[in-house]
Amino acid sequence: MDWKSFPASGKKRETDYSDGDPLDVHKRLSSTVLLGFAMMGFSVLMFFLLGTTILKPFMLSAQREESTCTAIHTDIMDRWLDCAFTCGVHCRGQGKYPCLQVLVNLTHSGQKALLHYNEEAVQINPKCFYTPKCHQDRNDLLNSALDIKEFFDHKNGTPFSCFYSPDSQSEDVILIKKYDQMAIFHCLFWPSLTLLGGALIVGMVRLTQHLSLLCEKYSTVVRDEVGGKLPYIEQHQFKLWSMRRSKGRSRE
Questions:
Q1: How many whole angstroms from its chain centre is CA 25?
Q2: Whole-number Å distance between alpha carbons of 33 and 25
Q3: Which residue, among 12, 25, 15, has the nearest Cα to 213 in the 3D structure?
Q4: Cβ count near 197 (within 10 Å)
Q5: Contact at 8 Å (CB) between 67 and 111?
Q6: Residue 80: CB partners within 8 Å, gap ≥ 6?
Q7: Rounded to whole angstroms, how far apart are CA atoms 177 and 155?
Q8: pLDDT of 157-171, one tens digit each?
Q9: pLDDT band at 236 (very low <50, low <70, confident <90, very high)
Q10: In whole angstroms, how far apart are CA 104 and each of 19, 76, 93?
Q11: Using an 8 Å Cβ cutoff, are 84 and 134 in contact?
């Protein structure tokens, strides 16, 4: 038995506990925490943007129920309405667009009402079916309105889906809903999921740091205890080796 095979002190055993670089570990944890906070900040920004562009108009708009409508009369008003458009950074122009009116009959109540494309069209101009994008080409605006008029004229009394407000006394009916419940669900679900994911990442990193600190304290105590007992063990083993060696020489 070679007594040199035993470590001379507890210092060599202490080096076995430091396999990784603490600086690299700290950098990885810091970058992970930053990722979690970035996700949380992005989710708050999503809540703000979606809340102002989708949730707020949806809450302010009247709640509508689905029904069926039948086109009665379509007409393009003789008087065109004014609109404004931009043609550059510092360029603004004035134009006009045709107002298309679509009169429909609600099947379930027999009430006559003006049809609009969606909720936004009602808020912009309650007299017209829709408000086209303003520009200088009057022929293009007129052709678009004529195409829509022809579409409803070819319905020939065929019922189609529409949405009305049962709590409102206004005679406004919309063709499609711009914001439905599924869109509201996605506006709330994905930002909430991102916020929860960021919070979980930050919480897991904090928990990992806490457990790492506890592990480091425990390993320090263990190293101190082992380092105190190791010289005594080595000394005892060396004495046994010396006694065996001396006995072997005496027999010879």
A1: 29
A2: 12
A3: 25
A4: 15
A5: no
A6: 96, 97, 98, 99
A7: 21
A8: 789 999 888 776 556
A9: low
A10: 78, 15, 35
A11: yes
